[in-house]
Specification:
about 180 residues, alpha+beta, 4 helices, binds octanoyl-coenzyme A, Thiol Ester Dehydrase, Chain A, cell membrane, apoptosis
């Protein structure tokens, strides 16, 4: 479903980005990134090294349609949710979403190459506030933006995932990934 050029674009980091190789256990059944057919959502995650925020490249396939030829708002909100949650995890906060706000600014044509940016904006005890933006990959058009409140979970409940996440991000710091 995706062209070879699309796959190459998805997998190529921009300057200052490091690829995140997330464990199969996180990706295989993920609602957002678990589809490898290209019909629904195709994503690749990166760390933006200068400020350690999250970036993702994403293409909304035909199976994400809402308005004819354009992405469903729920699919855009799901991508923002996932990216914002990932941004918090990337900074060492094992969280789940408690509240999410999404604003849809411009209709997103199916097949367009998009970039998601997500960053932690504030941490207050267990409350982690994150913001995000879904924009055109090669331009400034913003399709959607959002903010979310995430709540830190007891790391004991997340044992394996939390240590696996730490390992992935420390490998990035060592330049081995
Ligand atoms: C690596 C990829 C990551 C992908 C991430 C994707 C993100 C997701 O979609 S996660 C899935 C969707 N989210 C969920 O299913 C979460 C469901 N909710 C829950 O499990 C619980 O309500 C949970 C964990 C958020 C909070 O429960 P609990 O741990 O008992 O917290 P609790 O003690 O009640 O509250 C802790 C603090 O958070 C605040 N809080 C909790 N929920 C909310 C809320 N909805 N709104 C505002 N504040 C809240 C409380 O007021 C409290 O604040 P304070 O410390 O100031 O009193």
């Amino acid at each position: 479903m995706l062209s070879d050029d699309d796959v190459k674009w998805l997998e190529t980091p921009q300057p200052g980005w490091s690829a995140l190789r997330l464990p199969h256990m996180i990706l295989e059944d993920s609602f957002v990134s678990g589809d490898s057919s290209g019909r629904r959502l195709s994503l690749r995650f990166f760390r933006h090294d200068p400020d350690r925020s999250l970036r993702a490249k994403v293409i909304f396939g035909p199976g994400t349609q809402g308005p004819p030829g354009h992405a469903h708002g729920g699919s855009m909100a799901a991508v923002l949710d996932d990216a914002m949650g990932g941004a918090a995890w990337m900074q060492g906060h094992p969280v789940v979403a408690a509240e999410l706000t999404a604003r849809f600014k411009t209709m997103l044509p199916l097949g367009a190459r998009c970039v998601v940016e997500a960053w932690v904006s504030a941490v207050d005890g267990r409350k982690v506030r994150v913001a995000g933006r879904l924009r055109q990959g090669d331009g400034d058009t913003v399709f959607a933006e959002g903010e979310a409140l995430f709540i830190t979970l007891d790391p004991k409940k997340f044992g394996v995932l939390t240590s696996e996440a730490s390992r992935i991000f420390s490998e990035l710091d060592e330049g081995t990934s």
